[in-house]
Amino acid sequence: MKKIVLATALLGASMTASANAPGGPGCGWGNMLFEGQSGLPIHLLATLVNGTSGNATFGMTSGTNGCDTSGALAYSGSSLLAMNGVLEEVAHDIAMGEGEALTALSVSMGVSSDDRGHFNSVLHQNFSAIFPHESVTAEEVLASIQAIMKADQQLVKYTA
Amino acid sequence: MHINRGATLRGRGRSYVTDESFFLSPDGRDDPAAELEASIAALAEADSQARCAYPARYRFIAEQFGWQDSAPFAHCEEYLSWREQIPDGPVVLIFPAAYLNSPSSMFGHTLLRIDGEEEDGVWLSQAVNFGAQVDSSDNSIFYIYRGLAGGYPGYFSIVPYLTKIQDYAHLENRDMWEYTLSLDDEERRWLVEHLWELRDIRFDYYFFDENCSFRLLELIEVARPGSRLLDDYRFAEVPVNTVRALQDAGLIEKRVYRPSKAAELDHLASQLSPAARRLARRLAADPSLADEDEFLSHPVEQQRLMAQTAYEFLRFRNRTRERDAQVARNSLAMLRLVNRLSGQVVAEAVPLSEPEPPEEGHATKMIAAAYGQREGHEFGEVQLRYTYHDLFDNSTGFLRGAQIEGINVRLRSTESAALKLERFDLVNIRSLAPRSTFVRPVSWFVHAGIERVQAGDEDDRRYGRSHFVEGGPGLSWQWGRLTPFVFATFRAENNSAYDPFVTGAAGASGGLLWHAGRGATLGVQGSGYYLNNDEYRHRASVTANLPLTRNNALRLDLERLAVRGDADTEFRVSWRYFYD
After folding, report:
1. How far is A149 from chain B (nearest CA, A)?
2. Which residues, 6+ apart, have CB-to-CB distance to B500 below 8 Å?
3. How far is the C-alpha of B532 from the C-alpha of B536, rounded, in Å?
4. Does the ipTM surpass 0.90?
């Protein structure tokens, strides 16, 4: 149960609605690979008093990336790939074939721990297909990953 | 109730919570008994909203009175759905260590993390943070002032842990230490339920005492009453002491080190020869070098390391900048190369060696006794330092090259005079950030205080008390165990021996540190500056610091101080004892 909530929380309605950019304009779905993480000055100020930059959050809604967190999409605010900086960590881990970002991605896609080794190696082999050029967006990356999973016998069950 | 039982100065006997909505009784903040009565009355009703707001309070009171209700929170939809989202695995204390060149990190920070299942990793764990709420519309100067002086509202927040990894390990390049706490299911339940009660509840945030570390100790005390974490008086709670307090209470079960991106880049570069390092740097700017013999002549494993190093270097430099198309193109080219080469490499990656953990460093306060001679005259000295670490102190558990001294007093007694203030350092911060093939940081120092200095020449020799502020940028390198450094010095002083209220000065300094092993450090330093009243001062010194145990050290200082070429030589041997 928890896993399903988590997957919903992190990938949001992605499985069903990735084509029409959930979260509204300004949401990180259009984030390109290697997007810089701006807003650093305010971030450093935050460090001084150990605050959290961004909105007040209590694990309920995370409006950290400009996503619309109202209504039905409340839990999809922090869609993993759309979060600042995550896309490049995932790219790095897929290039290497393992890593914490890749584990997080597999968890949030509901891939069971038995299948994660396979998930990692399939993505590793398809790196160039998932990241065809440097301006690829979070949304496109997710679509490619889903397409690759659909074509894989062992992973197709997670795309239903 | 968060009542101050004497651990900090302000408002003893009152609750730390300043938010009226936290209390059910109008006098709740000052009168715990009234609050308890009001709570009992409010929580007794089966469908009361108070139950939804105070699940831990409810459970505490229900257990005392033996209330029976199989589903006391059935009507609390919001609470239940939140509770469902909070993982029920181990609770972990997170300590992002200080990082070079950044004063805002110097006292560190602590937060908690609540984990899910182990195999899922920690990226998706929830981080529990207490801090001032930052709003980008705030005026920055005013913000800093309020943050330090207090009166800024502090709140608990819960965010995905990966955002904290990004903030600390990726953007600020701080190593992180993760300490798993030995709380059992029941204790964790108290913690999580009480956390809900603190949602949107305002505390005052005080940088020096009622800060993040203090609030976390309170929270852990709720989970395990009787752990006596708040029994000691706590002012300027240094986060590393939070770790120690938890360790002393037997709460720490396991420790994990999470290197920063800078540490990872260092680690990758350390596996390359100097020539390969330079090639990796060029590769980052021009990925087409990967097709040339210079690159291809290296073994495949080295090629992959170079590509990885080049990639991490590009990200290190550009992660905090606006997106640049060329950098993005090169970054992807490096990842493609890593991806291709990692298919051909079977060698296991060399793991990054873990530094000594911060809690194994020396204690934060210091007292020292010294004997010395100046030009044949004997003297004795006592020294008190409130906080924290200088360049010669044993760097085990500390960031090497980072000196942070606050409130450092030396009193001297000579044959002819009783105790006199020799020097007082209000702050003395020096950051030696080594430059390498990949990083080119600028070191810096700031120093303010009072010192006794010689003025005038041989015929008219006087001692003045100088109130000074000095600082400047510098450069530093690392050659094995040697750390050379140079700094420019700009200084302003108010000296009782000079007429003008403020005298300015400019000069330079330099030195060489040798980390001799086993925590011992030896160094030579020289500095000189000219004052705008035509005086000049030079100082040359040799210092050796020999740690005897974790909290005891022996130090030798040999100093030559000159004013207008008229020099005194001073020798000191001191015993340094660290405590608390």
Report:
1. 19
2. B533
3. 9
4. no
Phi first, then psi, for residue B381 (nearest 5°) are: -140, 145
**In degrees rounded to 5, what are phi and psi of residue B3?**
-85, 140
Torsion of CA A93, A96, A99, A103, to 10 degrees: 70
A chain contacts of residue B144, beta-carbon cutoff 8 Å: 45, 48
Structure confidence by residue, pLDDT tens digits, A74-117: 222 236 787 778 889 999 999 999 999 999 888 888 889 999 99
Q: What is the pLDDT of residue A67?
A: 47
Which of B119, B160, B199 is facing A62, going by the closest CB pair?
B160
Residue with tokens 């015993």: B575
What pLDDT shows up at residue A76? 29
Beta bridge partners of B476: B434, B485
The CATH T-level fold of domain B362-579 is: Porin (2.40.160)
Residues A101, B170: contact at Cβ < 8 Å? Answer: no
Test B157 with A57 for CB contact under 8 angstroms. Answer: yes
Among candidates B166, B205, B323 on the partner chain, residue whose Cβ is nearest the Cβ of A36: B323
Q: Map residue B75 onto helix, strand or coil.
A: coil
pLDDT of residue B17: 74
Tell me the pLDDT of chain B averaged across its residues: 86
E strands, B182-251, where?
Answer: 203-205
Among residues B244, B261, B236, B114, the alpha carbon closest in space to that of B175 is found at: B261
Cβ within 8 Å, pair B338-A95: yes
Q: Which amino acid is at B174?
A: R
Query: pLDDT value at position B91?
Result: 95
Q: Please report, for chain B, the start and end positions of each structural domain, with discontinuous segments joined by +.
A: 20-84, 86-258, 261-342, 362-579
Closest CA to A53 of B159, B285, B86: B159
Contact state of A47 with B331 under an 8 Å Cβ cutoff: no
From CA B191, how far away is CA B225, in angstroms rounded? Answer: 11
Token pair for B325: 């198309």
- Res B235 pLDDT > 80: no
pLDDT at B293 exceeding the cut of 70: yes
* B335: closest chain A residue by CA: A95
